[in-house]
Amino acid sequence: MKRRELLKGAGVLSIVAVVLALCGNLGDAADPTPVTVLITYHSVSGNTERMAQGVAEGAKAVSGTSVVLKRVGEVGADDLSSSDAVIVGSPVYFANMSGEVQTFFDNWSLKFSLFQDRKMRNKVGAAFATGAAVSAGKEFTILGILGAMLNNQMIIVSGGGGFGASATTGPDSPGIDEKELAAARDLGKRVAEVAAVVKRGSLKSSSPIIALTAP
Ligand SMILES: Cc1cc2nc3c(=O)[nH]c(=O)nc-3n(C[C@H](O)[C@H](O)[C@H](O)COP(=O)(O)O)c2cc1C
């Protein structure tokens, strides 16, 4: 075969490769991985609820994502086991998650047997918090939530801020401002995106190779 014919053949192959690559990308956009993101929270005076709504907006913006938004007391075992990702929000109570949120996690073992059966393994997890003071426990609260998720072998991600999304609600900064809401949206969006990647990779099918100790 002459050199010119070889070059022509290579050119045609390159064009075919580019078209195939473009089709692949378009295919992804047109056929997103369906994921369910459960966003659950405790809120007495509405601040954490407002952040939860922001998180939900961000998750919904990712094509293929279904969002379930519930208070922690309304969440049942099915809500948790049917979700691909769980995002938990709490007000800061004495530098920690509130009792309601702690009870919610306790029920993963006591009521729902999710811990014993490793039902939460490889689901994506994330957290958000609101607190009255600039520095009086928001990150402890988020880390407490993430710790409970790690104990259940979930895949932890952040978004919005370094550990998750948070808002200051006390006298110096009343209410939830646009920047804090943007952080909440960013958290929801990132969790939905990562959940789709994990689901496409079928990580959820992996089971533990060692017996884990009780919490
Ligand atoms: C019992 C209790 C303890 C609290 N402890 C803290 C605290 O340690 N640090 C802080 O920043 N805010 C603290 N707060 C304020 C709440 O975290 C804050 O007002 C929060 O935004 C309330 O959320 P909600 O409107 O969703 O109920 C406390 C509030 C209550 C009721």
- Please estimate the helix content: 40-55%
CATH homology-level superfamily of the largest domain? Flavodoxin domain
Question: Strand percentage, roughly?
Answer: 15-25%
CATH topology of the largest domain: Rossmann fold
Q: Can you tell me the overall shape?
A: globular
* pLDDT averaged residue by residue: 88
Element-by-element helix/strand order: HEHEHEEHEHEEH
Gyration radius (Cα, Å) is 21 Å
Structural class: alpha/beta
List all distinct small molecules, including ions and cofactors, that are bound in this structure: flavin mononucleotide
Tally of strands: 7
**Biggest sheet features:** 7 strands, mixed
Architecture (CATH level 2) name of the largest domain:
3-Layer(aba) Sandwich
How many structural domains are formed by the residues? 2
**Residue windows where pLDDT falls under 50 for at least 5 positions:** 16-28
Number of continuous helical runs: 6
Our measurement of the CA-to-CA distance between the termini, rounded to an integer number of angstroms, reads 70 Å
CATH class type of the largest domain: Alpha Beta
Report what the structure shows:
Helices cover 45% and strands 18% of the residues. The chain has six helices and seven strands. A hairpin with a 2-residue loop joins strand 3 (85-93) and strand 4. The model is unreliable at 16-28 (pLDDT under 50). The protein starts with a helix and ends in a 15-residue tail after the last helix. The chain folds into two domains: 2-30; 35-203, Flavodoxin domain (Rossmann fold), CATH 3.40.50. It is an alpha/beta fold and 215 residues long. Bound molecules: flavin mononucleotide. The site of flavin mononucleotide (FMN) has 19 residues, from helix 2, strand 3 and strand 5. Residues 43-49, 91-95, 130-133, 136-137, 169 line the site of flavin mononucleotide (FMN).
